[in-house]
Hints:
mainly alpha, 2 helices, 2 strands, two-stranded antiparallel ribbon
Amino acid sequence: MVEKRPSTSSWSRAVANMLGVLLIFAGIAAAGGLIAALAGGFEGWAIVAGIAVIVLFGGAFLAVREGARRRRLESNAVVYAPDNTDELFDVDPNTGRRTPHRD
């Protein structure tokens, strides 16, 4: 039996997940800069910070959504609801073939 390997390494998945976290933190920092620019009366910097907040939080949303989509697609869980709960079947995760369960 040939073992299926994921298309990406765990290191690259961790980096992709951390990108979303870093974007969220940068968006929070930009929001702080926006508040400071508004309080100081710097209209130009407030516009720049406002655009940065929108871009950073939008990128964070897309990164988190992509990570969730990737986890859902890479899941190896076999979801099976038997028609008759009195019979137990083992399901082969590679082929989906059902065989009677043996203890």
